[in-house]
């Protein structure tokens, strides 16, 4: 296991403890042993070196003493600053985006998530490779071994190489997306609404989906659950039926604060399921002391992808691990406590004007069946001499023409 420091500059008057702790967790998820954090408070960050020269020397001595070979900045730093620090310290210098990309590479299972992760890596790596080439060219020009023209030619070659690879990946992604869109069109024909589970990474979204499936006794396959960040990179979709109502439940990729733009761009189609949902279930880890901050970070990402404001339910998970509760909806995916209340509230949001009843539709009124079948759920459950017995569910206004034929039959 590699040993690392989590480092950075905290601007005086602000507190970065939340994002520092998050970066430590990200490093641990990437199988780094975080030896210590090394934070300096300054009025501003030096764009060239980040740290002052005296602090760089102090950090170098600590790194040697602890036999640490990697430092990870909890905030973004420029390509040039990263290279200069690496030379000064004699160790690998990363930022949190690089760590997140490594985690995504380890977690990606499907073809779609692998393509999206590689696209994000290419967008992240190109400026670094160009900066490396520029610095190399500067050194060689100083020694009289290279001209500006040849350096520019090499940079153009690198840009073209990246562009070709991105084009290939984007074409492959289009094929995967085509299948996903066909699946979505098929689901849309059912008229069932869509519910998106959103929240901070490792907040318990997948566990909640599995708990809902178990509570409603669905046949849908449970999703994989592990107690680690970014376990879910692919959108999982399950059909849920509850008290005569049905909806599609989408489990989405988890968020972090300041989610890198390269990841938002690469995973846009995956994040789009949150944007297209009729209702969002905002999942918050109720046992996390930083739950409020992570709740706000999730809202920030939802705004970036155009999924906020949207009708939503705020749900605190892991009730079984908490002794005192704030106001709001609390559930335990482990004991299933609160799942019924969650589903009842969700149905109220999804179907505010929904009605269900059984009717006997005369054969000479079949035109109503044809007209309303695209607006509501009409299920043929029997047949009599005078007409068809239907179980219907839908908007009260849409189903008003069928109300005169409503029947109450104990044997239906």
UniProtKB/TrEMBL annotation:
<dbReference type="GO" id="GO:0046872">
    <property type="term" value="F:metal ion binding"/>
</dbReference>
<dbReference type="GO" id="GO:0005737">
    <property type="term" value="C:cytoplasm"/>
</dbReference>
<dbReference type="Pfam" id="PF01926">
    <property type="entry name" value="MMR_HSR1"/>
</dbReference>
<dbReference type="InterPro" id="IPR016496">
    <property type="entry name" value="GTPase_HflX"/>
</dbReference>
<protein>
    <submittedName>
        <fullName>GTP-binding protein HflX</fullName>
    </submittedName>
</protein>
<feature type="binding site">
    <location>
        <position position="206"/>
    </location>
    <ligand>
        <name>Mg(2+)</name>
    </ligand>
</feature>
<dbReference type="GO" id="GO:0005525">
    <property type="term" value="F:GTP binding"/>
</dbReference>
<keyword id="KW-0547">Nucleotide-binding</keyword>
<keyword id="KW-0460">Magnesium</keyword>
<dbReference type="InterPro" id="IPR006073">
    <property type="entry name" value="GTP-bd"/>
</dbReference>
<dbReference type="InterPro" id="IPR027417">
    <property type="entry name" value="P-loop_NTPase"/>
</dbReference>
<feature type="binding site">
    <location>
        <begin position="251"/>
        <end position="254"/>
    </location>
    <ligand>
        <name>GTP</name>
    </ligand>
</feature>
<feature type="binding site">
    <location>
        <begin position="199"/>
        <end position="206"/>
    </location>
    <ligand>
        <name>GTP</name>
    </ligand>
</feature>
<keyword id="KW-0175">Coiled coil</keyword>
<dbReference type="InterPro" id="IPR042108">
    <property type="entry name" value="GTPase_HflX_N_sf"/>
</dbReference>
<keyword id="KW-0479">Metal-binding</keyword>
<dbReference type="GO" id="GO:0043022">
    <property type="term" value="F:ribosome binding"/>
</dbReference>
<feature type="region of interest" description="Disordered">
    <location>
        <begin position="133"/>
        <end position="156"/>
    </location>
</feature>
<dbReference type="Pfam" id="PF13167">
    <property type="entry name" value="GTP-bdg_N"/>
</dbReference>
<keyword id="KW-0342">GTP-binding</keyword>
<dbReference type="InterPro" id="IPR030394">
    <property type="entry name" value="G_HFLX_dom"/>
</dbReference>
<dbReference type="InterPro" id="IPR032305">
    <property type="entry name" value="GTP-bd_M"/>
</dbReference>
<feature type="binding site">
    <location>
        <begin position="230"/>
        <end position="234"/>
    </location>
    <ligand>
        <name>GTP</name>
    </ligand>
</feature>
<feature type="binding site">
    <location>
        <position position="232"/>
    </location>
    <ligand>
        <name>Mg(2+)</name>
    </ligand>
</feature>
<feature type="domain" description="Hflx-type G">
    <location>
        <begin position="193"/>
        <end position="354"/>
    </location>
</feature>
<feature type="binding site">
    <location>
        <begin position="332"/>
        <end position="334"/>
    </location>
    <ligand>
        <name>GTP</name>
    </ligand>
</feature>
<feature type="coiled-coil region">
    <location>
        <begin position="159"/>
        <end position="186"/>
    </location>
</feature>
<dbReference type="Pfam" id="PF16360">
    <property type="entry name" value="GTP-bdg_M"/>
</dbReference>
<dbReference type="InterPro" id="IPR025121">
    <property type="entry name" value="GTPase_HflX_N"/>
</dbReference>
